[in-house]
């Protein structure tokens, strides 16, 4: 049974930092593209970061590049989204998602959008004021 569980969202002031995490169980996450999506009220779900643990390759949306970093801890089967210099426009529900991936370069993982992802977490709220 595949399960993704996010935690670590919260409320911060602009310029602050958060580090949501996504704990994966029931499958080998290192053979998957692990991505972070976000969705604000009234807006479409947006892919912001992707990581392929098999090679350490990462990819980011233009809106977060330079401020967000994705990392993982294989011993804990957990991926993280390090969010720095947060802005009010980053306010959204953040979701962890996974899809099978076997390309050492992860940059294409988000191209097909959220429909390509098989597994989703329940989401964690990030609010920036």
Fill in the keyword field for this structure:
129 residues, mainly beta, 7-stranded mixed beta sheet, 47% strand
Can you walk me through this structure?
This protein is an all-beta fold. It contains no helices and eleven strands. The mean pLDDT is about 95.
**Backbone shape:** globular
The profile of the biggest β sheet is: 7 strands, mixed
Q: What separation lies between the terminal Cα atoms? A: 37 Å
Rg result: 13 Å
The ordered H/E elements are: EEEEEEEEEEE
- The structural class is mainly beta
In short:
The protein is 0% helix and 47% strand. With 129 residues, it is mainly beta. The model has no long low-confidence stretch (mean pLDDT 94).
Helices, strands, pairings?
Elements (H helix, E strand, L loop, with lengths): L2 E5 L2 E3 L8 E5 L6 E8 L6 E7 L4 E4 L7 E6 L4 E6 L8 E9 L18 E2 L3 E5 L1
Parallel strand pairs: 2-11
Antiparallel strand pairs: 1-3, 3-8, 4-5, 4-9, 5-6, 7-8, 9-10, 9-11
């Amino acid at each position: 049974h595949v399960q993704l569980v996010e935690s670590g969202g919260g409320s911060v002031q602009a310029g602050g930092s958060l580090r949501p995490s996504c704990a994966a169980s029931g499958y080998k996450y290192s053979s998957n593209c692990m991505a972070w999506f976000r969705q604000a009220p009234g807006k479409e779900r947006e892919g912001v970061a992707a990581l392929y643990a098999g090679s350490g390759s990462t990819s980011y949306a233009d809106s977060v590049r330079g401020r967000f970093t994705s990392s993982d801890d294989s011993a804990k089967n957990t991926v993280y989204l390090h969010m720095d210099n947060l802005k009010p426009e980053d306010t959204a529900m953040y979701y962890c998602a996974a899809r099978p991936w076997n390309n050492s370069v992860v940059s294409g993982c988000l191209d097909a959008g959220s429909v390509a992802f098989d597994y989703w977490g329940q989401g964690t709220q990030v609010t920036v004021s």
